[in-house]
Specification:
This protein is an alpha+beta fold. The protein has 6 helices and 10 strands; from the N terminus they run αβααβββαββαβαβββ. β8 and β9 form a beta hairpin.
């Protein structure tokens, strides 16, 4: 199994379907690295600690984090399973960005941005990153989110360990 496949496997079991291998995440999304390795290998997915550490350290998107004591791993964001990342609310910059495909623009303009199957809407602090994200889904369009005004109006924002801004939803009135 190559690095890309291993990273996708980690995303699957740490963000969406831990039950696929019998893994249990704690309330904050952390899993024992030793348990993850044992369960993955028992189900035919070859994985070891050095491979996990390589993926965590070298992933361009920094999707995963290892605990300070080195015994646990979790996904930084993007969960569809219910967990509490334990991130404190943060004051966002005045504007954040969301990349999407042009085909979704009509429904977004009507109802805003929603987390869909995930726990949060993901926002970028720069236009280029948002454009790159949007291009994964088709012809990209970048929406400007009036995050400062949202925060002043009582909406909460969080920033994940890898710098992705998170919020529950973005009402259409805050989008340009």
């Amino acid at each position: 199994m190559n690095e890309v496949s291993q990273s996708k496997f980690l995303s699957l079991v740490l963000r969406h379907k831990p039950e696929e291998i019998g893994l249990v995440l704690d309330q904050n999304g952390w899993a024992s690295i030793d348990e993850l390795i044992a369960l993955a290998n028992a189900r035919g997915t070859n994985l070891n600690r050095s491979q996990i550490e390589f993926i965590v350290e070298n992933s361009d998107k920094k999707r995963f984090a290892i605990s300070a004591d080195g015994t646990k791993i979790r996904a930084n964001q993007g969960h569809s399973v219910e967990i509490a990342l334990g991130l404190p609310p943060q004051t966002p910059p005045e504007r954040l960005y969301h990349g999407t495909a042009t085909r979704f623009l009509g429904s977004i303009r009507e109802s805003g941005l929603h987390s869909a199957a995930r726990q949060h809407v993901h926002l970028s602090s720069d236009h280029a990153t948002a454009e790159k994200v949007g291009s994964r889904h088709g012809k990209p369009v970048v929406l400007t989110v009036e995050a400062g005004q949202m925060a002043r109006d009582g909406h909460f924002f969080y920033i994940s360990e890898n710098g992705v801004w998170l919020t529950e939803a973005v009402p259409a009135k805050y989008l340009n």
